[in-house]
């Protein structure tokens, strides 16, 4: 009797064990991700300032947010930054991958050099570029000391151009990674089709344009998703490189949210901006994840 | 007939090939430039930098900037150097990486070998968590850490990194275990092996490649994190990235660029070492995991 009850308990435990093992992770995700998202979205409809408070104010934070020039500048900067960052990383990553795919000597070494920036913290990247681009000690000063006395390069201190220095540093950090994604895609293409096309006398240009690049569709999609998600999250790089300045020339939504929430005591507006960031990323990620998960079934 | 070659076999002329090498070399220089700037300027006296010699090799070689960055530079209010923050980062990274990797392995195992109704939805929920902008959880997380009594501590940061890391670790292990033959699991079950026995004896011994991927990924992300460190760390749990930023941004006194560069290298060294030593295993492990079943 006791034996069979014991065995019964054991089988029951075995059927529940998998779910039991998964449950702490699921519980953490439900609370710390989805619960927190709901909490933040709720806060965006309240009069929270220094601390969370629960007086309902409806859409007031959102209408205030959209009237703030600070937010408008952040969005405009985001537009410029995302467009250039995604565009340049994709073109550069694809070109370098194609070049590197031509039976290049020392390919391993070159790949290592192209990829190492990805291992660095954005704070390190920001620090290195901040001083290299600084007109006082960096490139401008160096060129002048080398004899080009009229050489000027003050983008990082110039309101109209500072955002491009953020693009430069961000491209430097991630383009090698995009290159690796395209390289993996190129290596997955069936060589037989290429040989057949070459027999038919297709030029290299047409070979790439008509046959190879269209087959890289999945790599393009992954690159786009990863880059746009990185772009929206960009925060540390701006903090280290320009601190959002000069003026507000390099403020992005992530830095806007941080300063409104933690230094300006406008938590309701901060939460509203975070909600908009989340919605933007969700609009890109959810269709992608949905398609990926369905495919794998 | 090159059978083994995976390269895209296009015919290129000599001029084209020279041009390709030239472009590749040029970009190699572009990627190496900031590293060069950091290294050469971290071993020269400050006067050589401010005098317009940022690109030059040092005339006077000195390790003083390194010593200062490590043990005596002014960070915040104390002249402690980066050393204590380096250890803060280690104390945070090691448990966070270990816990999130173990949880990811177990989750991946359950989600592929003990499938249940709605398991794809559960995985989708866990996976989406990787991609949220963390701004959306900053405020409630600050409050929660306060409620749990671990605000401003290393353990608080460990918790944060585990929570927002398990999405990726679960993803890696799930993809890897998905191609692991399920028949082996069924056979072991028939022989009476239990849930943990199967994991321990059958899956774990062949999990090396993906464990490496998970560990490298988590180590790099957590070591390099700035947002959580800046938001949740207390004075004595601040990680390296936050300390480096404080060092560089400090507005008082003379800007010691050479010390900043030395500090930046110190902050980059652990992840750079991991990348150089284990980078190839990372790519290999990823490839093994990405083969679709």
Q: What number is the mean pLDDT of chain A?
A: 89
What is the helix fraction of residues of chain B, given as a range? 55-70%
Helix/sheet category of chain A: mainly alpha
Number of domains of chain B: 2
Strand content of chain B: under 5%
State the low-pLDDT regions of chain B, or none.
1-5
CATH class of the largest domain in chain B: Mainly Alpha
If you had to describe this structure to a student in words, what would you say it looks like?
The complex is a heterodimer of chains A (297) and B (293). Chain A has 13 helices and no strands. Chain A has helices spanning 2-43, 60-67, 69-100, 107-115, 122-133, 139-145, 162-187, 191-199, 204-215, 217-233, 236-241, 253-263, 267-296. The radius of gyration of chain A is 25 Å and the shape is flat. Chain B is mainly alpha-helical. Chain B has 2 domains: 1-37; 83-287, MetI-like fold. Helices cover 70% and strands 0% of the residues of chain B. Chain B is built from 14 helices and no strands. Chain B is globular, with a radius of gyration of 24 Å. The chains are: A mainly alpha (297), B mainly alpha (293). At the A-B interface, helix 1, helix 3, helix 4, helix 5 and helix 6 of A face helix 1, helix 4, helix 5, helix 6 and helix 8 of B.
How would you summarize this macromolecular structure in one to three sentences?
The complex is a heterodimer of chains A (about 300) and B (about 290). Chain A is an all-alpha fold.
Keywords:
heterodimer, A: 297 residues, mainly alpha, MetI-like fold, 13 helices, B: 293 residues, 2 domains, 14 helices, globular, disordered N terminus
Give the helix/strand layout.
The complex is a heterodimer of chains A (297) and B (293).
Chain A: H1 2-43, H2 60-67, H3 69-100, H4 107-115, H5 122-133, H6 139-145, H7 162-187, H8 191-199, H9 204-215, H10 217-233, H11 236-241, H12 253-263, H13 267-296
Helix pairs in contact in A: 1-13, 2-13, 3-7, 3-10, 4-7, 5-7, 7-10, 8-9, 10-13, 12-13
Chain B: H1 14-41, H2 46-50, H3 64-71, H4 83-113, H5 119-128, H6 135-148, H7 154-163, H8 166-178, H9 182-190, H10 195-203, H11 208-224, H12 227-232, H13 240-249, H14 257-290
């Amino acid at each position: 009797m006791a034996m069979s009850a014991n065995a019964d308990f054991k089988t029951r435990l075995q059927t529940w064990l998998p779910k039991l093992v998964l449950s702490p992770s699921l519980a953490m995700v439900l609370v710390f991700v989805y619960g927190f998202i709901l909490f933040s979205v709720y806060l965006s409809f309240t009069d929270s300032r220094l601390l969370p408070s629960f007086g309902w104010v409806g859409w007031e934070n959102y209408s205030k947010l959209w009237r703030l020039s600070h937010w408008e500048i952040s969005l405009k900067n985001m537009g410029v930054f995302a467009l250039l960052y995604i565009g340049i990383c994709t073109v550069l990553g694809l070109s370098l991958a194609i070049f590197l795919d031509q039976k290049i000597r020392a390919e391993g070494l070159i790949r290592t050099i192209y990829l190492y920036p990805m291992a660095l913290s954005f704070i390190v990247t920001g620090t290195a570029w901040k001083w290299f681009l600084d007109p006082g000690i960096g490139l401008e000063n160096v060129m002048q000391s080398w004899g080009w006395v009229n050489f000027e390069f003050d983008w990082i201190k110039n309101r109209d151009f500072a955002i491009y220095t953020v693009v430069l540093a961000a491209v430097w950090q991630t383009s090698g990674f995009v290159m690796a994604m395209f390289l993996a895609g190129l290596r997955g293409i069936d060589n037989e089709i290429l040989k057949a096309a070459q027999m038919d006398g297709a030029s290299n240009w047409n070979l790439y344009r008509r046959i190879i690049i269209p087959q890289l569709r999945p790599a393009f999609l992954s690159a786009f998703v990863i880059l746009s998600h990185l772009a929206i999250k960009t925060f540390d790089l701006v903090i280290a490189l320009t601190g959002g300045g000069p003026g507000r020339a390099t403020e992005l939504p992530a830095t806007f949210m941080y300063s409104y929430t933690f230094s300006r005591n406008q938590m309701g507006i901060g939460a509203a901006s975070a909600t908009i960031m989340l919605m933007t990323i969700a609009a890109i990620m959810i269709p992608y994840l949905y398609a990926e998960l369905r495919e794998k079934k | 007939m090159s059978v083994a070659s995976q390269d895209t076999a296009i015919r290129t002329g000599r001029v084209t090939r020279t041009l390709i090498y030239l472009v590749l070399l040029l970009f190699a220089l572009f990627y190496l430039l900031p590293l060069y700037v950091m290294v050469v300027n971290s071993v020269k006296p400050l006067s050589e930098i401010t005098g317009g010699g940022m690109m030059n090799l040092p005339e006077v070689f000195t390790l003083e900037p390194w010593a200062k960055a490590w043990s005596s530079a002014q960070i915040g209010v104390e002249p402690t150097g980066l050393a204590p923050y380096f250890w803060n980062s280690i104390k945070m990274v090691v448990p966070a990486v270990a816990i999130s990797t173990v949880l990811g392995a177990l989750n991946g195992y359950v989600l592929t070998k003990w499938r249940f109704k709605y398991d794809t939805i559960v995985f989708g929920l866990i996976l989406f968590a990787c991609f949220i902008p963390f701004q959306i959880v900053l405020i409630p997380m600050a409050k929660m850490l306060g409620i749990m009594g671990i605000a401003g501590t290393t353990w608080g940061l460990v918790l944060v990194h585990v929570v927002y890391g398990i999405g990726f670790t679960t993803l890696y292990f799930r993809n890897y275990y998905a191609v692991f033959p399920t028949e082996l699991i069924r056979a072991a079950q028939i022989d009476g092996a239990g849930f943990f026995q199967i994991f321990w004896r059958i899956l774990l011994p062949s999990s090396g490649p993906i464990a490496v991927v998970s560990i490298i990924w988590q180590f790099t992300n957590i070591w390099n994190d700035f947002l959580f460190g800046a938001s949740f760390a207390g004075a004595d749990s601040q990680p390296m990235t936050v300390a480096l930023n404080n060092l560089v941004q400090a507005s008082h006194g003379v800007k010691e660029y050479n010390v900043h560069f030395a500090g930046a290298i110190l902050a980059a060294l652990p992840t750079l070492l991991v990348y150089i030593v284990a980078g190839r295993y990372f790519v290999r492990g990823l490839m093994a995991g990405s083969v679709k079943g």
